[in-house]
Design goal:
It is a single chain. With about 725 residues, the chain is of the alpha/beta class. The chain folds into four domains: about 5-105 and about 245-370, FAD/NAD(P)-binding domain, CATH 3.50.50.60; about 120-240 and about 375-440, FAD/NAD(P)-binding domain (3-Layer(bba) Sandwich); about 460-575 and about 595-625, no CATH class; about 640-700, Arc Repressor Mutant, subunit A, CATH 1.10.10. The protein has 18 helices and 37 strands. The strands form ten sheets. Strands 8, 9, 10, 11, 12, 13 and 24 form a seven-stranded mixed beta sheet that branches. It has a seven-stranded antiparallel beta sheet with strand order 25-28-29-34-31-30-35. Strands 2-1-7-5-6 form a five-stranded mixed beta sheet, with helices on one face.
């Protein structure tokens, strides 16, 4: 799209958690025009930073193409780079690179001489781990400690998996999964710990592409070098891929998954949107909305089909407090626009899960973020089982859960694999298994918030009223006056009066809370106008001493306005939090306070509202107002197979004609024959069968390709070039 903006206008300059730095730049060419990029950026991020959202047009129907997964799982973002078709989200921009949009079927470069070939490199290893995220790294650490020769492969340019994208603080147990630390910090801790183990080798930029019947695994390093690995055991910890949705305009540039959005914003510091609308009220969607606000992106609203958001209530409460409306029992009707998203239309849904006529509303936005669940990347595991390999699965590849559970899952599997390989290690303790189940548990009961009657001294207030696994607040209290009882899923209580201890006012519980759900009220100086301490994770300049701020309660209701008395930086100093690589201990040998990037905002509030205050309003109401008239997308361009542009109507026609075999539908329509290998559309086709009232037991599933990820034939054959 033509923006008229300077290339750097879409780079994030200030961020409350991440360090935004200009860094070194380079020049590259897009359609012959010279543009600027940051060193180390992916092509897709460089294009986004220059205001370019359309990467080409599909040869079948000329529909605009743009980024979708940003995870190498599809080919929506394909471009021609120096003459070769590449996934722009996986290819680093190079100085002078000439990048062209894909406007037709790419022509292969001319080959003047017959290629020469080399033998395929082969190697053996005791354990191969596919995936260098929280599960894979945790397993590798456990295996390395047991002396097992371990190879970890990951397709990204940095280890950590989704931890690299997670700037929020983690829930769970501080002792078991670094609760209270941010995902980006945990990723660095795990990576450094694995690097210290002599028997652990990590290959980044390495795709696992196939599992063969001779029990060898094909790997492609740096997109150029093919290696066959024969492991004695294998752990699949490849994570998950995002589900998609069927609605009009669902393939417009500007409609993409939460992972793609977080990759652009949190990894590459590119402002991927101006106005964002979210579909899906699980933790992924709720957290992505929070990340958007931190990056200065307006969040217009969020729809959830269920009557209640499935994610943690504290995540939902944060968004509501910051001014984001959440529409439960609603669904998206269409994404609207010609070449890119210009607006979104939503509607309420009835008991039959269909949109209720007359409830439609449209909202101006340029991005629709889809966060409707995850599917495990488990094809490697199932193929290895078919071929009789000694194979295990951990993390999301085994069961979709939080990253804290993935870490513990990997740790358990690492111990199990070490024993399988004959290492003299203890059996997995029962309490490990119990902890894993706790960390995987879904939210439990929700209670009415209890406001204590006490109005003297100083004490914390806990605005979290849902049972979730989380205990950082009890771990940091220096007087041990916060408790959740014998189960970390219980809601916390302050028991200072019960045990004869007085709150010190350190506010570490306020600073460390992953849900920003703890405040502190201080009546000591002025009982009629106590000081309330509120956690704040936006830029330091966003709130200053003397500002008049709007304060809200837990569910986002406006309580009034208060004057900011002080703004203090947050810091945590407890033995339970490891240092991030690069931190240094002071000469005294004592553990230094850990900078948290969570500011403490102290406001003077009237006594009547002080204990109800849970946060500050960040976003103005006018951002979230619907358009005067809802926008109806007249074009029925509902696409199921993005790669081959196969519509829902084409597939429904075959189902109604009696087809019950996805492979038959593939032959007739080409659905599932695209570059992504049916990773996106297979689940959507099954959804269409269900909507047509077909028993899914009758359906013959898709036959998997031998290769799970595309590989250039020259690389597979071992050409020298």
């Amino acid at each position: 799209m033509e923006t008229g903006l300077h290339p750097d206008d879409f780079h994030i300059r200030e961020h409350p958690i991440l360090t935004a730095s200009d860094g070194e730049t380079l020049e590259f060419f897009w359609s012959g025009e010279e543009l600027t990029a940051r060193q180390g950026e992916m092509i897709s991020s460089a294009l986004f930073a220059n205001g370019i959202r359309i990467f080409g047009h599909h040869p079948k129907d000329d529909s605009p193409q743009g980024i979708f997964c940003a995870n190498g799982q599809c080919s929506q973002c394909m471009v021609i780079a120096d003459g070769y078709p590449v996934k722009s989200c996986m290819e680093i921009i190079q100085p002078g690179m000439r990048v062209e949009p894909v406007e037709s079927l790419p022509a292969l470069p001319a080959v003047e001489d017959a290629p020469s070939f080399h033998d395929t490199e082969e190697m053996e290893v005791e354990c191969l781990i596919i995936g260098g995220g929280p599960a894979g790294l945790s397993a590798a650490i456990e295996l390395g400690r047991a002396g097992v020769e371990t190879l970890v492969v990951d397709d990204k340019h940095k280890l950590g998996g989704k931890l690299v994208l997670q700037t929020h603080k983690f829930f769970g147990s501080m002792a078991d999964c670094y609760a209270g630390m941010r995902g980006i910090e945990i990723g660095e801790v795990l990576e450094e710990e694995a690097a210290r183990l002599d028997t652990v080798t990590c290959w980044i930029n390495t795709n696992a592409v196939a599992v063969f019947s001779d029990r060898k695994v094909g790997l492609v390093r740096d997109g150029r070098h093919y290696v066959l690995v024969q492991p004695k055991t294998m752990l699949v910890a490849a994570g998950a891929r995002e589900k998609s949705l069927i609605f009009r305009g669902n393939t417009l540039p500007g409609v993409y998954g939460a992972g793609a959005f977080q990759t652009l914003v949190n990894r590459d510091l590119v402002r991927a949107a101006e106005k964002l609308f979210i579909v899906g009220g699980g933790n992924v969607g709720l957290i992505a909305g929070y990340h958007a606000l931190q990056a200065g992106i307006q969040v217009v609203g969020l729809v959830e089909a269920l009557p209640k958001c499935g994610g943690y209530k504290v995540h939902k409460d944060k968004l509501v407090r910051f001014g984001v409306p959440i529409y439960t029992s609603h669904t998206i009707v269409s994404a609207n626009g010609d070449e890119t998203v210009e607006s979104v239309t939503i509607a309420g849904i009835g008991p039959d899960w269909k949109a209720i006529p007359g409830t439609e509303q449209s909202f101006e936005c340029d991005t629709v973020l889809i966060a409707v669940g995850l599917d495990p990347v488990d094809e490697f595991y199932h193929k290895a089982v078919d071929f009789g390999m000694e194979v295990f699965a951990a993390g999301d590849a085994r069961e979709i859960a939080e990253a804290s559970a993935a870490m513990f899952s990997g740790k358990i599997k690492g111990r199990e694999i070490a024993r399988t390989l004959g290492r003299d290690v203890e059996e997995t303790p029962d309490d490990w298994l119990a902890t894993e189940q706790v960390l995987k548990s879904k939210p439990g009961m929700t209670y009415d918030e209890e406001i204590p009657e006490k109005e003297e001294g100083i004490f914390p207030l806990f605005h979290c009223s849902e049972e979730i696994p989380c205990n950082p607040c009890i771990s940091v209290c220096p007087i041990h006056a916060v408790t959740v009882g014998d189960d970390i899923r219980n809601t916390p209580r302050f028991i200072g009066d019960e045990i004869g201890e007085t709150c010190t006012g350190c506010a570490q519980c306020v600073t460390i809370c992953p849900g920003l759900a703890v405040t502190m009220v201080d009546y000591r100086k002025d009982p009629e106008n106590p000081i309330v301490t509120i956690a704040h994770e936006f830029t330091k300049e966003s709130v200053k001493k003397g500002d008049l701020v709007t304060v809200l309660d837990t569910v986002g209701a406006v309580l009034g306005t208060c004057v900011v008395e002080k703004v203090r930086p947050g810091a945590i100093a407890v033995p339970g939090l490891p240092d991030v690589p690069g931190d240094e201990e002071p000469e005294s040998g004592k553990k230094k306070p850990k900078k948290s990037n969570t500011f403490k905002i102290l406001v003077k509030a009237p006594r009547e509202i002080a204990k109800q205050i849970a946060g500050l309003q960040v976003q103005e109401e006018n951002v979230t107002e619907p358009m005067d008239l809802y926008v109806e997308r007249l074009t029925d361009d509902t696409i199921v197979c993005r790669c081959e542009r196969v519509s829902a109507g084409e597939i429904r026609e075959m189902i109604r004609a009696g087809s019950r075999d996805i492979n038959e539908i593939k032959v007739a329509t080409r659905s599932g024959m695209g570059a992504c290998g049916s990773k996106t559309c297979s689940g959507l086709i099954m959804q269409l069968f269900a909507e047509e009232g077909i028993d899914l037991e009758e359906i013959t599933g898709n036959v998997d390709r031998p290769f799970f990820v595309e590989i250039p034939i020259g690389v597979f054959c071992g050409t020298e070039e």
